[in-house]
User: Fold this.
Amino acid sequence: MTDIINFNTVDHFAVEDDQVEGGFSTQHSGYVHIRVQQRNARKKLTTCEGLDQRINFRRVLRALRKNFACNGNIVDHIELGKVIQLQGDKRNDVEEFLTRSGLCTNEEIKIHGVQD
Assistant:
C-alpha cells in the first residue's frame, strides 16, 4: 500500500517575517489583521485578530456593535487567541475605530482582501 503524503499547509495571509507552521503564525508579529470572509452570496464576516490579549474584549465588542449597528462575537482560537467577528464588511470602520480609540496605530493594522 502506498503512503499518503500530507502536503504542508501554508498560511497565504502570513507576513513574510512571520514563521509559519501548520498554516498559522507561531509568533505574534505585532500586527492587527483585519479580514473579510464571504459566507454566502451576499453575507460577509469581518474578523479582527492580533489585538493585545490584555484588553477587555467584551467592552470593545460592545462598542463596535453599537457604533456599526451589527452583531458580533468573540472566538477563542487555539493559535490566534481571541478573535473578534462582526457581521458585514466593516474593515474600514474597524480600522478607524481601532486607531481612534488608541488600541493600535495605523502602521500596526493590515487589511486583507480586495477593497470595494
Observations:
- Helices lie at 57-68, 91-101.
